[in-house]
Design goal:
The protein is α+β, with helices and mostly antiparallel strands. The protein folds into two domains: 245 residues, Creatinase/prolidase N-terminal domain (Creatine Amidinohydrolase, Chain A, domain 1), CATH 3.40.350.10; 260 residues, Creatinase/methionine aminopeptidase superfamily (Creatine Amidinohydrolase, Alpha-Beta Complex), CATH 3.90.230.10. The chain is 38% helix and 16% strand. The strands form seven sheets. Strands 1, 4, 7, 8, 9, 10 and 11 form a seven-stranded mixed β-sheet that branches. Strands 12-15-16 form a three-stranded antiparallel β-sheet. The N terminus is likely disordered. The protein binds manganese (II) ion (MN). The site of manganese (II) ion (MN) has 5 residues, from loops.
Amino acid sequence: MNHGSKMFGFVKKCLIPRLENIGAQIVMCHSTAASQNPLSHKSYNKQAHITYGQPTATTHPHLLKPGELVPGIKLDEFIFRRTKLVEHILNDEYVGKTSENQHILIIPSSTKLYMSEKIPYVFRQNTDFLYFTGCQEPDSILVITANNSRFESTLFVQKKDPRSELWDGPRTGAEVAAEMFGVDKSYPITEFELFLNSLLHENRKNVIWYESDDIIHPDIHKKILQVVKSIGNRTFLSPKTIFHDIRLIKSETEIELMKKSCEIASAAIAKTIQASKCGISEHELFATVDYQCRINGAEFLAYPPVVAGGKNANIIHYITNNQIVHNGEMVLMDAGCEYHGYSSDITRTWPINGTFTPQQRILYEVVLDVQKMLIQQLEKFPTLDQIFHEMCRLLGIRLQEIGLIPKNFSADELLKAAFSYCPHHVSHYLGMDVHDSGKISRSIKTRPGMIITIEPGIYVSPKNPLAPAEFHNLGIRIEDDILIKEKTPVILTKSCPKEIDDIETLAKCNQ
Ligand SMILES: [Mn+2]
Protein backbone atom coordinates (compact mmCIF):
# COMPACT_ATOMS: atom_id res chain seq x y z
CA MET A 1 0.00 0.00 0.00
CA ASN A 2 1.37 3.36 -0.87
CA HIS A 3 -1.58 5.39 0.23
CA GLY A 4 0.41 6.89 3.05
CA SER A 5 2.76 8.68 0.75
CA LYS A 6 -0.06 9.74 -1.52
CA MET A 7 -1.88 11.23 1.42
CA PHE A 8 1.25 13.02 2.46
CA GLY A 9 1.40 14.62 -0.94
CA PHE A 10 -2.20 15.60 -0.56
CA VAL A 11 -1.62 17.12 2.81
CA LYS A 12 1.40 19.07 1.66
CA LYS A 13 -0.31 20.43 -1.37
CA CYS A 14 -3.31 21.69 0.47
CA LEU A 15 -2.24 22.66 3.93
CA ILE A 16 1.05 24.42 3.39
CA PRO A 17 0.28 28.10 3.17
CA ARG A 18 0.71 29.76 -0.15
CA LEU A 19 3.27 32.52 -0.29
CA GLU A 20 1.08 34.91 -2.18
CA ASN A 21 -1.17 37.12 -0.17
CA ILE A 22 -4.72 35.90 -0.56
CA GLY A 23 -6.24 38.34 1.87
CA ALA A 24 -9.38 37.58 3.83
CA GLN A 25 -11.20 36.08 0.91
CA ILE A 26 -11.94 32.39 1.22
CA VAL A 27 -10.41 30.39 -1.60
CA MET A 28 -11.38 26.85 -2.36
CA CYS A 29 -8.77 24.41 -3.59
CA HIS A 30 -10.98 22.46 -5.88
CA SER A 31 -10.98 22.84 -9.61
CA THR A 32 -13.65 24.62 -11.61
CA ALA A 33 -14.71 21.32 -13.11
CA ALA A 34 -15.65 19.96 -9.72
CA SER A 35 -17.58 23.06 -8.79
CA GLN A 36 -19.90 22.67 -11.72
CA ASN A 37 -22.85 20.50 -11.19
CA PRO A 38 -22.15 17.14 -12.81
CA LEU A 39 -25.84 16.60 -13.25
CA SER A 40 -26.10 19.52 -15.63
CA HIS A 41 -22.73 18.81 -17.20
CA LYS A 42 -22.54 17.35 -20.67
CA SER A 43 -20.22 14.57 -19.57
CA TYR A 44 -22.95 13.37 -17.30
CA ASN A 45 -24.84 11.83 -20.21
CA LYS A 46 -21.82 9.74 -21.08
CA GLN A 47 -21.91 8.46 -17.54
CA ALA A 48 -25.52 7.41 -17.73
CA HIS A 49 -24.55 3.86 -16.84
CA ILE A 50 -23.17 4.98 -13.48
CA THR A 51 -25.45 4.26 -10.56
CA TYR A 52 -25.73 6.70 -7.68
CA GLY A 53 -26.48 6.17 -4.02
CA GLN A 54 -29.29 8.72 -4.05
CA PRO A 55 -31.84 10.15 -6.49
CA THR A 56 -30.52 12.38 -9.29
CA ALA A 57 -32.31 14.54 -11.84
CA THR A 58 -31.78 11.78 -14.41
CA THR A 59 -32.93 8.81 -12.35
CA HIS A 60 -35.72 10.66 -10.48
CA PRO A 61 -36.89 13.55 -12.68
CA HIS A 62 -40.14 13.68 -10.67
CA LEU A 63 -38.11 14.64 -7.56
CA LEU A 64 -35.20 16.74 -8.87
CA LYS A 65 -34.91 19.39 -11.56
CA PRO A 66 -31.82 19.42 -13.77
CA GLY A 67 -28.92 20.94 -11.85
CA GLU A 68 -30.19 20.02 -8.41
CA LEU A 69 -28.06 17.84 -6.13
CA VAL A 70 -30.95 17.16 -3.77
CA PRO A 71 -34.58 18.11 -4.42
CA GLY A 72 -34.87 21.89 -4.52
CA ILE A 73 -31.18 22.65 -3.91
CA LYS A 74 -28.38 23.04 -6.43
CA LEU A 75 -24.78 22.01 -5.96
CA ASP A 76 -23.47 25.60 -5.65
CA GLU A 77 -25.53 26.10 -2.51
CA PHE A 78 -23.65 23.27 -0.81
CA ILE A 79 -20.32 24.73 -1.89
CA PHE A 80 -21.45 28.11 -0.57
CA ARG A 81 -22.43 26.50 2.76
CA ARG A 82 -18.99 24.93 3.15
CA THR A 83 -17.33 28.25 2.32
CA LYS A 84 -19.41 29.94 4.99
CA LEU A 85 -18.55 27.18 7.43
CA VAL A 86 -14.83 27.75 6.95
CA GLU A 87 -15.34 31.50 7.33
CA HIS A 88 -17.10 30.91 10.65
CA ILE A 89 -14.40 28.55 11.87
CA LEU A 90 -11.62 30.96 11.01
CA ASN A 91 -13.51 33.78 12.69
CA ASP A 92 -14.24 31.79 15.82
CA GLU A 93 -13.31 33.38 19.11
CA TYR A 94 -11.02 30.42 19.87
CA VAL A 95 -9.02 30.89 16.71
CA GLY A 96 -8.20 34.44 17.73
CA LYS A 97 -6.61 33.13 20.94
CA THR A 98 -4.36 30.51 19.41
CA SER A 99 -1.34 30.69 17.20
CA GLU A 100 -2.58 27.67 15.22
CA ASN A 101 -4.08 28.48 11.91
CA GLN A 102 -4.47 25.01 10.47
CA HIS A 103 -7.81 23.42 10.99
CA ILE A 104 -9.32 20.01 10.42
CA LEU A 105 -13.08 19.66 10.56
CA ILE A 106 -14.66 16.21 10.63
CA ILE A 107 -18.39 15.62 10.11
CA PRO A 108 -19.52 11.98 10.07
CA SER A 109 -22.75 10.82 8.44
CA SER A 110 -25.25 8.65 10.27
CA THR A 111 -24.97 4.90 10.14
CA LYS A 112 -27.78 2.44 9.57
CA LEU A 113 -29.61 1.42 12.73
CA TYR A 114 -31.35 -1.90 13.17
CA MET A 115 -34.59 -2.67 14.98
CA SER A 116 -33.68 -6.38 15.05
CA GLU A 117 -31.36 -8.74 13.18
CA LYS A 118 -30.88 -7.36 9.65
CA ILE A 119 -34.09 -5.30 9.86
CA PRO A 120 -33.14 -1.65 9.46
CA TYR A 121 -34.96 1.39 10.74
CA VAL A 122 -35.76 4.00 8.11
CA PHE A 123 -32.45 5.76 7.50
CA ARG A 124 -32.19 9.41 8.42
CA GLN A 125 -29.01 11.26 7.57
CA ASN A 126 -27.11 13.29 10.17
CA THR A 127 -28.60 16.71 9.56
CA ASP A 128 -25.33 18.65 9.77
CA PHE A 129 -23.62 16.25 7.37
CA LEU A 130 -26.53 16.49 4.92
CA TYR A 131 -26.60 20.28 5.16
CA PHE A 132 -22.93 20.62 4.22
CA THR A 133 -22.69 17.82 1.63
CA GLY A 134 -26.09 16.93 0.17
CA CYS A 135 -24.95 13.32 0.54
CA GLN A 136 -27.65 10.87 1.61
CA GLU A 137 -25.44 7.82 2.10
CA PRO A 138 -24.65 6.19 5.44
CA ASP A 139 -21.08 5.57 6.62
CA SER A 140 -19.58 8.63 4.96
CA ILE A 141 -17.42 11.45 6.33
CA LEU A 142 -16.76 15.02 5.28
CA VAL A 143 -13.33 16.34 6.18
CA ILE A 144 -12.47 19.98 5.59
CA THR A 145 -8.92 21.18 5.98
CA ALA A 146 -8.51 24.91 6.24
CA ASN A 147 -5.45 27.03 6.39
CA ASN A 148 -5.80 30.78 6.59
CA SER A 149 -8.44 31.33 3.98
CA ARG A 150 -7.74 28.32 1.79
CA PHE A 151 -9.68 25.17 2.31
CA GLU A 152 -10.20 21.77 0.82
CA SER A 153 -13.12 19.38 1.19
CA THR A 154 -12.72 15.61 1.12
CA LEU A 155 -15.58 13.18 1.18
CA PHE A 156 -15.19 9.57 2.29
CA VAL A 157 -17.93 7.26 1.05
CA GLN A 158 -18.64 3.56 1.00
CA LYS A 159 -16.87 1.57 -1.67
CA LYS A 160 -18.81 0.18 -4.59
CA ASP A 161 -19.61 -3.41 -3.65
CA PRO A 162 -21.87 -5.52 -5.89
CA ARG A 163 -22.84 -7.86 -3.07
CA SER A 164 -23.89 -5.15 -0.61
CA GLU A 165 -25.51 -3.17 -3.40
CA LEU A 166 -27.62 -6.19 -4.30
CA TRP A 167 -29.16 -6.03 -0.83
CA ASP A 168 -29.11 -2.34 0.00
CA GLY A 169 -29.22 -0.59 -3.36
CA PRO A 170 -26.60 1.31 -5.32
CA ARG A 171 -23.76 3.33 -3.81
CA THR A 172 -22.21 6.35 -5.45
CA GLY A 173 -18.65 5.20 -4.79
CA ALA A 174 -15.49 7.23 -4.36
CA GLU A 175 -14.75 7.44 -8.09
CA VAL A 176 -17.61 9.82 -8.86
CA ALA A 177 -18.41 11.24 -5.40
CA ALA A 178 -16.05 14.20 -5.73
CA GLU A 179 -17.67 15.35 -8.94
CA MET A 180 -21.18 14.61 -7.79
CA PHE A 181 -20.90 16.48 -4.48
CA GLY A 182 -18.57 19.22 -5.69
CA VAL A 183 -15.77 18.39 -3.26
CA ASP A 184 -12.07 18.40 -4.06
CA LYS A 185 -11.37 14.75 -3.36
CA SER A 186 -13.26 11.61 -2.54
CA TYR A 187 -11.91 8.34 -1.16
CA PRO A 188 -13.36 5.07 0.08
CA ILE A 189 -14.16 5.29 3.77
CA THR A 190 -11.67 2.49 4.42
CA GLU A 191 -8.92 5.05 3.78
CA PHE A 192 -10.13 7.54 6.35
CA GLU A 193 -7.84 6.47 9.19
CA LEU A 194 -4.77 6.61 7.02
CA PHE A 195 -5.79 10.01 5.74
CA LEU A 196 -6.39 11.43 9.21
CA ASN A 197 -3.20 9.89 10.49
CA SER A 198 -1.15 11.49 7.77
CA LEU A 199 -2.90 14.85 8.22
CA LEU A 200 -2.13 14.86 11.92
CA HIS A 201 1.46 13.78 11.42
CA GLU A 202 1.97 16.47 8.84
CA ASN A 203 1.18 19.14 11.36
CA ARG A 204 0.90 18.16 14.99
CA LYS A 205 -0.62 21.48 15.92
CA ASN A 206 -3.75 21.23 13.82
CA VAL A 207 -6.93 22.36 15.51
CA ILE A 208 -9.45 19.51 15.28
CA TRP A 209 -13.12 20.49 15.02
CA TYR A 210 -15.14 17.42 15.82
CA GLU A 211 -18.24 16.84 17.96
CA SER A 212 -16.95 14.28 20.44
CA ASP A 213 -19.70 14.53 23.06
CA ASP A 214 -22.76 13.88 20.98
CA ILE A 215 -21.50 10.86 19.03
CA ILE A 216 -23.12 10.50 15.62
CA HIS A 217 -21.31 7.42 14.31
CA PRO A 218 -19.80 5.13 16.97
CA ASP A 219 -17.37 3.30 14.62
CA ILE A 220 -16.02 6.47 13.05
CA HIS A 221 -15.76 7.99 16.52
CA LYS A 222 -13.65 5.05 17.71
CA LYS A 223 -11.35 5.41 14.73
CA ILE A 224 -10.90 9.13 15.26
CA LEU A 225 -10.03 8.55 18.92
CA GLN A 226 -7.52 5.83 18.02
CA VAL A 227 -5.72 7.95 15.46
CA VAL A 228 -5.69 11.00 17.69
CA LYS A 229 -4.43 8.99 20.66
CA SER A 230 -1.60 7.55 18.59
CA ILE A 231 -0.11 10.97 18.10
CA GLY A 232 -0.54 12.12 21.68
CA ASN A 233 -3.38 13.63 23.63
CA ARG A 234 -5.39 16.11 21.68
CA THR A 235 -8.60 17.90 22.40
CA PHE A 236 -11.49 18.51 20.08
CA LEU A 237 -13.36 21.71 19.54
CA SER A 238 -17.09 21.27 19.05
CA PRO A 239 -18.22 22.73 15.73
CA LYS A 240 -21.90 22.19 16.50
CA THR A 241 -22.76 25.73 17.55
CA ILE A 242 -21.15 26.98 14.35
CA PHE A 243 -23.22 24.51 12.28
CA HIS A 244 -26.39 25.62 13.98
CA ASP A 245 -25.55 29.28 13.68
CA ILE A 246 -25.35 28.84 9.92
CA ARG A 247 -28.44 26.62 9.71
CA LEU A 248 -30.49 29.06 11.79
CA ILE A 249 -30.99 31.48 8.89
CA LYS A 250 -32.73 29.82 5.97
CA SER A 251 -31.83 30.46 2.34
CA GLU A 252 -34.45 31.22 -0.32
CA THR A 253 -34.39 27.61 -1.53
CA GLU A 254 -34.76 26.31 2.02
CA ILE A 255 -37.70 28.64 2.58
CA GLU A 256 -39.37 27.20 -0.53
CA LEU A 257 -38.91 23.67 0.83
CA MET A 258 -40.20 24.72 4.25
CA LYS A 259 -43.26 26.33 2.65
CA LYS A 260 -44.03 23.10 0.85
CA SER A 261 -43.49 20.99 3.99
CA CYS A 262 -45.87 23.28 5.88
CA GLU A 263 -48.47 23.20 3.10
CA ILE A 264 -48.45 19.42 2.94
CA ALA A 265 -48.86 19.04 6.71
CA SER A 266 -51.52 21.78 6.85
CA ALA A 267 -53.61 20.05 4.20
CA ALA A 268 -53.09 16.66 5.83
CA ILE A 269 -54.32 17.89 9.22
CA ALA A 270 -57.32 19.63 7.60
CA LYS A 271 -58.20 16.32 5.89
CA THR A 272 -57.81 14.49 9.18
CA ILE A 273 -60.18 16.89 10.95
CA GLN A 274 -62.59 16.35 8.09
CA ALA A 275 -62.36 12.56 8.37
CA SER A 276 -62.85 12.45 12.12
CA LYS A 277 -66.03 11.30 13.85
CA CYS A 278 -67.18 10.16 17.28
CA GLY A 279 -65.77 6.78 18.28
CA ILE A 280 -62.83 6.95 15.88
CA SER A 281 -59.50 5.74 17.27
CA GLU A 282 -56.49 7.96 17.77
CA HIS A 283 -54.67 5.35 15.70
CA GLU A 284 -56.92 5.90 12.68
CA LEU A 285 -56.40 9.67 12.92
CA PHE A 286 -52.65 9.01 13.05
CA ALA A 287 -52.91 6.78 9.96
CA THR A 288 -54.94 9.46 8.16
CA VAL A 289 -52.46 12.26 8.74
CA ASP A 290 -49.54 9.98 7.84
CA TYR A 291 -51.24 8.87 4.63
CA GLN A 292 -52.19 12.39 3.62
CA CYS A 293 -48.64 13.65 4.14
CA ARG A 294 -47.09 10.84 2.15
CA ILE A 295 -49.44 10.92 -0.83
CA ASN A 296 -48.74 14.62 -1.14
CA GLY A 297 -45.00 14.16 -1.39
CA ALA A 298 -43.61 14.04 2.15
CA GLU A 299 -41.14 11.23 2.82
CA PHE A 300 -42.52 10.58 6.30
CA LEU A 301 -43.86 12.31 9.36
CA ALA A 302 -41.25 14.52 10.99
CA TYR A 303 -41.81 12.94 14.43
CA PRO A 304 -44.16 10.47 16.11
CA PRO A 305 -47.34 12.54 16.18
CA VAL A 306 -49.35 13.28 19.28
CA VAL A 307 -52.93 12.18 18.64
CA ALA A 308 -54.53 12.72 22.01
CA GLY A 309 -58.24 12.29 22.59
CA GLY A 310 -59.90 13.73 25.71
CA LYS A 311 -57.71 13.79 28.81
CA ASN A 312 -54.71 12.31 26.95
CA ALA A 313 -54.09 15.86 25.72
CA ASN A 314 -52.74 16.57 29.19
CA ILE A 315 -49.78 14.30 28.50
CA ILE A 316 -47.55 16.64 26.51
CA HIS A 317 -45.63 13.93 24.63
CA TYR A 318 -48.49 11.43 24.34
CA ILE A 319 -47.62 9.20 21.38
CA THR A 320 -49.29 5.93 22.37
CA ASN A 321 -52.24 6.91 20.18
CA ASN A 322 -54.30 3.81 20.98
CA GLN A 323 -57.46 5.16 22.60
CA ILE A 324 -60.97 5.79 21.25
CA VAL A 325 -62.09 9.42 20.98
CA HIS A 326 -65.57 9.64 22.43
CA ASN A 327 -68.45 11.97 21.72
CA GLY A 328 -67.98 15.23 23.62
CA GLU A 329 -64.19 14.99 23.69
CA MET A 330 -61.65 17.01 21.77
CA VAL A 331 -58.63 15.62 20.01
CA LEU A 332 -55.26 17.34 20.07
CA MET A 333 -53.08 16.49 17.11
CA ASP A 334 -49.44 17.59 16.97
CA ALA A 335 -48.07 16.41 13.62
CA GLY A 336 -45.75 17.55 10.87
CA CYS A 337 -43.96 16.03 7.94
CA GLU A 338 -40.50 15.87 6.49
CA TYR A 339 -40.38 17.04 2.88
CA HIS A 340 -37.00 16.56 1.21
CA GLY A 341 -35.29 16.99 4.55
CA TYR A 342 -37.35 19.93 5.83
CA SER A 343 -39.77 19.64 8.76
CA SER A 344 -43.11 21.16 9.57
CA ASP A 345 -44.65 21.11 13.06
CA ILE A 346 -48.33 21.89 13.55
CA THR A 347 -50.83 21.43 16.37
CA ARG A 348 -54.59 21.68 16.07
CA THR A 349 -57.30 20.80 18.58
CA TRP A 350 -60.89 20.10 17.55
CA PRO A 351 -64.13 18.68 18.96
CA ILE A 352 -64.55 15.14 17.68
CA ASN A 353 -68.31 15.62 17.17
CA GLY A 354 -67.94 18.93 15.34
CA THR A 355 -69.16 21.27 18.11
CA PHE A 356 -67.14 22.72 21.00
CA THR A 357 -68.83 22.51 24.42
CA PRO A 358 -69.08 25.92 26.15
CA GLN A 359 -66.01 25.17 28.32
CA GLN A 360 -63.99 23.88 25.37
CA ARG A 361 -64.92 26.96 23.38
CA ILE A 362 -63.95 29.36 26.18
CA LEU A 363 -60.50 27.80 26.52
CA TYR A 364 -60.01 27.47 22.77
CA GLU A 365 -60.73 31.17 22.29
CA VAL A 366 -58.16 32.07 24.94
CA VAL A 367 -55.43 29.95 23.33
CA LEU A 368 -56.26 31.23 19.85
CA ASP A 369 -56.29 34.89 20.92
CA VAL A 370 -53.00 34.54 22.77
CA GLN A 371 -51.43 32.71 19.83
CA LYS A 372 -52.48 35.46 17.41
CA MET A 373 -51.16 38.20 19.70
CA LEU A 374 -47.81 36.43 20.01
CA ILE A 375 -47.53 36.10 16.24
CA GLN A 376 -48.25 39.81 15.84
CA GLN A 377 -45.47 40.67 18.26
CA LEU A 378 -42.92 38.92 16.04
CA GLU A 379 -42.68 42.18 14.08
CA LYS A 380 -40.57 43.47 16.95
CA PHE A 381 -38.07 40.55 16.72
CA PRO A 382 -38.39 39.32 20.31
CA THR A 383 -36.27 36.45 21.66
CA LEU A 384 -38.05 33.10 22.02
CA ASP A 385 -37.75 33.44 25.80
CA GLN A 386 -39.42 36.86 25.65
CA ILE A 387 -42.27 35.30 23.66
CA PHE A 388 -42.57 32.64 26.36
CA HIS A 389 -42.71 35.26 29.09
CA GLU A 390 -45.30 37.16 27.08
CA MET A 391 -47.37 33.98 26.66
CA CYS A 392 -47.43 33.44 30.42
CA ARG A 393 -48.43 37.07 30.97
CA LEU A 394 -51.22 37.03 28.38
CA LEU A 395 -52.49 33.60 29.40
CA GLY A 396 -52.47 34.69 33.03
CA ILE A 397 -54.66 37.72 32.33
CA ARG A 398 -57.12 35.74 30.20
CA LEU A 399 -57.28 32.80 32.61
CA GLN A 400 -57.99 35.26 35.40
CA GLU A 401 -60.87 36.73 33.38
CA ILE A 402 -62.49 33.31 32.89
CA GLY A 403 -62.03 32.20 36.49
CA LEU A 404 -59.18 29.71 36.21
CA ILE A 405 -56.83 31.94 38.21
CA PRO A 406 -57.93 33.93 41.31
CA LYS A 407 -58.43 37.65 40.73
CA ASN A 408 -56.23 38.71 43.66
CA PHE A 409 -52.98 37.19 42.34
CA SER A 410 -49.95 39.46 42.01
CA ALA A 411 -48.17 39.77 38.65
CA ASP A 412 -45.58 37.20 39.76
CA GLU A 413 -48.16 34.75 41.06
CA LEU A 414 -50.07 35.20 37.82
CA LEU A 415 -47.08 34.15 35.72
CA LYS A 416 -46.54 31.07 37.89
CA ALA A 417 -50.22 30.15 37.74
CA ALA A 418 -50.23 30.53 33.93
CA PHE A 419 -47.18 28.28 33.77
CA SER A 420 -49.06 25.66 35.78
CA TYR A 421 -51.60 25.59 32.93
CA CYS A 422 -48.94 25.58 30.17
CA PRO A 423 -45.82 23.82 31.40
CA HIS A 424 -43.93 23.89 28.08
CA HIS A 425 -42.05 26.55 26.14
CA VAL A 426 -43.98 28.42 23.47
CA SER A 427 -41.44 28.37 20.66
CA HIS A 428 -38.47 26.62 19.09
CA TYR A 429 -36.47 27.03 15.91
CA LEU A 430 -37.66 24.88 13.01
CA GLY A 431 -35.92 23.70 9.86
CA MET A 432 -34.36 20.45 8.77
CA ASP A 433 -34.80 19.24 12.34
CA VAL A 434 -38.02 19.71 14.26
CA HIS A 435 -36.16 21.22 17.18
CA ASP A 436 -33.74 22.84 14.79
CA SER A 437 -30.42 24.48 15.68
CA GLY A 438 -30.65 23.14 19.22
CA LYS A 439 -27.32 24.72 20.18
CA ILE A 440 -28.70 28.19 19.63
CA SER A 441 -29.94 29.95 22.75
CA ARG A 442 -33.57 31.03 22.99
CA SER A 443 -32.37 34.32 24.40
CA ILE A 444 -31.14 35.78 21.12
CA LYS A 445 -33.34 38.13 19.11
CA THR A 446 -35.25 36.63 16.21
CA ARG A 447 -34.01 37.71 12.79
CA PRO A 448 -35.34 37.61 9.23
CA GLY A 449 -34.77 34.17 7.72
CA MET A 450 -35.43 32.27 10.94
CA ILE A 451 -38.38 29.92 11.09
CA ILE A 452 -39.94 29.37 14.49
CA THR A 453 -43.05 27.80 15.99
CA ILE A 454 -45.62 29.62 18.12
CA GLU A 455 -47.46 27.08 20.23
CA PRO A 456 -49.28 28.23 23.36
CA GLY A 457 -51.52 25.77 25.15
CA ILE A 458 -53.75 25.27 28.15
CA TYR A 459 -53.89 21.92 29.94
CA VAL A 460 -56.24 21.59 32.85
CA SER A 461 -55.05 18.84 35.14
CA PRO A 462 -57.50 17.77 37.85
CA LYS A 463 -54.45 17.96 40.14
CA ASN A 464 -54.15 21.71 39.55
CA PRO A 465 -55.72 23.19 42.71
CA LEU A 466 -56.67 26.35 40.79
CA ALA A 467 -58.74 24.53 38.18
CA PRO A 468 -62.56 24.55 38.37
CA ALA A 469 -64.00 21.03 37.93
CA GLU A 470 -65.92 21.82 34.73
CA PHE A 471 -62.62 22.45 32.92
CA HIS A 472 -60.83 19.36 34.20
CA ASN A 473 -58.96 17.22 31.67
CA LEU A 474 -59.32 19.66 28.79
CA GLY A 475 -56.10 20.15 26.82
CA ILE A 476 -55.67 22.59 23.94
CA ARG A 477 -52.67 23.70 21.90
CA ILE A 478 -52.51 25.67 18.67
CA GLU A 479 -49.18 25.67 16.85
CA ASP A 480 -48.13 27.40 13.64
CA ASP A 481 -44.80 27.71 11.84
CA ILE A 482 -43.69 31.27 11.19
CA LEU A 483 -41.05 32.74 8.91
CA ILE A 484 -39.53 35.88 10.38
CA LYS A 485 -39.33 38.67 7.78
CA GLU A 486 -38.06 42.25 7.75
CA LYS A 487 -41.64 43.47 8.05
CA THR A 488 -44.63 41.19 8.61
CA PRO A 489 -43.90 37.59 9.63
CA VAL A 490 -45.33 34.93 7.33
CA ILE A 491 -47.42 32.11 8.75
CA LEU A 492 -46.30 29.13 6.68
CA THR A 493 -49.09 26.94 8.08
CA LYS A 494 -51.83 29.48 7.37
CA SER A 495 -53.78 27.02 5.23
CA CYS A 496 -54.46 24.80 8.24
CA PRO A 497 -57.76 26.03 9.71
CA LYS A 498 -57.79 27.26 13.32
CA GLU A 499 -60.78 29.62 13.56
CA ILE A 500 -63.64 28.12 15.58
CA ASP A 501 -66.17 28.23 12.73
CA ASP A 502 -63.78 26.68 10.23
CA ILE A 503 -62.76 23.93 12.63
CA GLU A 504 -66.39 23.09 13.50
CA THR A 505 -67.48 23.06 9.87
CA LEU A 506 -64.67 20.69 8.90
CA ALA A 507 -65.17 18.40 11.88
CA LYS A 508 -68.88 18.07 11.12
CA CYS A 509 -68.26 16.68 7.60
CA ASN A 510 -68.00 13.01 8.51
CA GLN A 511 -70.49 12.69 11.37
MN1 LIG B 1 -43.39 22.30 18.08
